[in-house]
Design goal:
HIT family, subunit A, 5 strands, 3 helices, globular, alpha+beta, single chain, binds zinc ion, five-stranded antiparallel sheet
Length: 163
């Protein structure tokens, strides 16, 4: 228990934070789509929900929006909306979910999740019922690299169109 506590405190301070810059463009969890004004948009590797993206705050290690200045907050929210509009326009989901949790990586990031009437958890949150801490591993839907690229290209195209 004591160990878990100190690990959490270290995470909060940014030690070993995998979401701080410099950040890998692509890894087993994500592929970079675009750098926005104050954040970077990534396609999540698990594509159970087509177009599932992550938006990660870039300038420094902050664990919650309450720590941001007014300007940083406004710019981040504009990035979030811009990303969401591009995803929605590119993929035409029925609805969009937004989640900012940070329980395992406490560095500001948003999950932007397109929802479809045919998705397995339609009318429910995406997380509930998934095995705790294994949600990114169990039933993960990895795509062939070319399919990731098609989704990335579609989102990049709409981002550019809506600049
Ligand atoms: Zn960080």
């Amino acid at each position: 228990m004591k160990n878990q506590q100190s690990t959490w405190d270290e995470f909060v301070q940014g030690e070993g934070c995998s979401l701080c810059q410099p950040r890998e463009q692509n890894n087993e969890y994500r592929r970079e789509i675009a750098q926005l004004a104050i954040s970077t948009l990534y396609l999540f590797a698990d594509q159970r929900f087509r177009g599932y993206c992550l938006l990660i705050f870039d300038p420094y290690h902050a664990t919650g929006i309450e720590q941001l200045t007014e300007d940083e907050y406004n710019v981040l929210m504009k990035d979030l909306r811009r990303a969401a509009q591009a995803i929605r326009f590119a993929l035409n989901p029925a609805h969009m979910n937004y989640e900012s949790l940070g329980n395992s990586s406490p560095h500001i990031h948003w999950h932007i999740i397109p929802r479809y009437k045919h998705d397995r958890r339609w009318e429910q949150p995406i997380w509930e019922g998934w095995a705790q801490r294994n949600e990114f591993v169990v039933n993960r839907l990895a795509l062939p690299e070319q399919e990731y690229q098609e989704i990335i290209d579609a989102i990049r195209f709409t981002l550019k169109e809506r600049e």
